[in-house]
Specification:
The chain has about 575 residues and is α+β, with helices and mostly antiparallel strands. Helices cover about 20% and strands about 20% of the residues. The protein contains 14 helices and 27 strands. The chain has a six-stranded mixed β-sheet with strand order 4-17-14-16-15-18. Strands 1-26-19-22-21 form a five-stranded mixed β-sheet, with no helix packed on it. A hairpin with a 2-residue loop joins β5 (about 110-115) and β6 (about 115). Residues about 1-50 and about 55-60 have low confidence and may be disordered. It binds calcium ion (CA) (2 copies).
Length: about 575
């Protein structure tokens, strides 16, 4: 039966350990009882017990930032491009519902219109801003107060004017929480100093989180979405890029909400009417070359409407998009986009970006996996990483900390590597769909390579070789030693053998890991006196630093005192 192992009939990188490998390895023991496979799998599970934790923050790349806070993580549905996604199957009807000939209107600007400021204002407050009482008409769909509302909070439409949506938006720079209220009113009435507040509804978001509101809950917007991330802000336009979707309104919306929206406000059930949350974009064919030429402001907004598009967020005037109140706006520049008609838009199918209907995360990478290698100080720093197609990792720092950038959905094994260092268990990641941290990898630096596992004074293939292979497979107890102890063995308890082998330099192929499918097979073949390419066939890992028989033979001789024929 041993000949089967020698022939290399083992899945090359059998990290997942198929049953074929298990039965081959176990059948190589001269007729002794096959180990219980339940124990085998349990041992494998222990051997590869990495702890993977989803991180709640740590956006990749560039999320929009206000007051030091990201406006949701970089891979929030608000912050990812939709310019290459398919057109929604019902786009033509949705656009017709809102109005093919109706014009785009930028519903913000500088100065006053009919005596009132334009756009939706927001403000930020420092850490420690006093929390003040607030109650809501729709208390059962609102996050309860108190809220850190400053006495002079800017209110949509002007604090002095009682009508309108009266949105109030506050970012707490200390906690990076976003507070949004609809129909915000103070008590006692303006202009007295406010002692408490009321609102129609109120919502609080953690700007570092993908969490959405509970399904069917409203927010300060009818879609149950936050308002702030969809506002066009002067500073980002001045900087030359709006890197997020824009909020817009339509007169008729469906009695339904599409991800990431959470709420509707309609009795219309027509499937040809867009639902709350529906994403639209400006068609790529709409030219930014005009006569007279568009301003940089208009071009920047036009490009954002193509790349990031806009989300249907409330009932209101058709094709009205929202921006922040700011007296630096040049209203003439904003009006340059009046040429855009409803027919210039198309609805986008964003379903491929949804990770979970209850999360605002978009299924895009790269994602960040961080970890810390445990072990002696000399072993954990300066570790490089190999493997994992599409993944790139930093070299570990002196404390063993490293960070990898991986594609969305990444699965694969990464090999931490350092000279004369062994890392365990295997760093295998499966379906990474969120930023995560990994713990459990430990480094060790053995100094000897004593292959006499059973300590009987000689090194044998079907004894020491088999004991090493079983240990590498994670087998424990009598199953690990049955039928494999040599005559006059002095080390016969499986745990003692495991302790001995852990302290040996058994990384034969030099990938800084000890694995049955590679190092175990190499050792066993060499102990059986095989030489040449038959030793290394299908038994060298993808991250090996010793890949030829000559280099492996030299290593066995110099490190483990194992002399094998050339
Ligand atoms: Ca021995
Ligand atoms: Ca190895």
């Amino acid at each position: 039966m041993i000949a089967m192992i020698l022939a290399g009939q083992i899945s090359r990188y059998a990290i997942g350990m198929n049953s074929k490998f298990g039965s081959l390895a176990c059948s190589a023991n001269r007729g002794d009882a096959i180990p219980d496979h339940g124990a085998f799998w349990f041992a494998r599970a222990l051997l590869t017990s990495l702890v993977l934790m989803t991180a709640t923050s740590g956006a990749n790349g560039a999320a929009p930032v206000i007051g030091g806070c990201p406006i949701f993580p970089a891979n929030s549905i608000w912050n990812v491009p939709v310019d290459t996604l398919p057109v929604h199957g019902n786009s033509a009807n949705f656009v017709a519902s809102i109005g093919i000939n109706a014009g785009l209107h930028l519903d913000f600007g500088s100065g006053l219109y009919q005596g009132r400021p334009m756009g939706i204002p927001f403000t930020t407050v420092p850490a420690g801003q006093p929390m003040v009482p607030i109650t809501f008409d729709v208390a059962d769909e609102s996050d309860p107060g108190p809220y850190p509302i400053p006495p002079n909070i800017p209110i949509e439409g002007g604090a002095a004017f009682p009508s309108g949506d009266r949105h109030g938006i506050v970012i707490d720079r200390g906690t990076c929480k976003l507070y949004e209220v609809g129909v915000l009113n103070q008590s006692p009435a303006y202009p007295a100093a406010p002692a408490s507040w009321t609102g129609y509804s109120g919502a609080v978001w953690d700007l570092n989180s993908h969490a959405l509101r509970p399904a069917t809950w409203t927010s300060a917007d009818a879609a149950g979405l936050p308002i702030l991330p969809g506002l066009i802000r002067y500073d980002e336009v001045a900087a030359g890029e709006i890197a997020h979707a824009v909020r817009f309104t339509a007169q008729v919306t469906r009695r339904a909400f599409d991800w990431p929206a959470r709420h509707y406000a309609s009795s219309n059930t027509s499937s040809n009417v867009p639902a709350m949350g529906a994403r639209f974009r400006l068609k790529a064919s709409v030219s930014e070359v005009r006569m007279p030429p568009l301003s940089a402001t208009a071009i920047t907004i036009l490009r954002a409407l193509k790349k990031y598009g806009m989300m249907l967020a409330d009932n209101g005037s058709n094709w009205y998009i929202s921006g922040a109140t700011d007296d630096r706006w040049n209203n003439d520049e904003l009006h340059e986009l009046d040429f855009i008609r409803g027919s210039d838009f198309e609805a986008v199918d964003v379903s491929s970006l949804m990770v979970n209907v209850n999360s605002g995360q978009a299924a895009v990478g790269p994602l960040t996996v961080t970890g810390t290698i445990a072990g002696p100080a000399a072993a954990i720093g300066g570790v490089t990483f190999c493997g994992g197609a599409g993944a790139t990792c930093s070299t570990s720092d002196a404390s063993g900390n490293y960070s990898c950038s991986v594609p969305y959905g990444f699965s694969g094994r990464l090999y931490p590597r350092k000279t004369d260092t062994i890392f365990a268990p295997a760093l295998t990641l499966a379906s990474v769909t969120a930023n995560a941290s990994v713990t459990g990898v430990t480094a060790r630096q053995p100094v000897t390579c004593a292959l006499d596992a059973d300590n009987n004074g000689s090194v044998g293939s079907v004894t020491d070789g088999l004991l090493m292979l079983r240990w590498m497979l994670g087998m424990t107890g009598n199953a690990a030693t049955a039928g494999a102890l040599g005559l006059s063995a002095q080390r016969i308890v499986a745990a003692d053998i495991a302790n001995h082998l852990t302290a040996q330099k058994l990384d034969i192929d030099g990938d800084s890991s000890v694995d049955a499918a590679t190092d175990g097979v190499l050792l066993l073949r060499a102990l059986l006196g095989i030489s040449g390419n038959a030793v290394i066939a299908n038994a060298v890992s993808p991250c090996a630093t010793r890949t030829t028989w000559a280099s492996i033979r030299a290593h066995l001789a110099s490190t483990c005192s194992l002399t094998v024929a050339p």
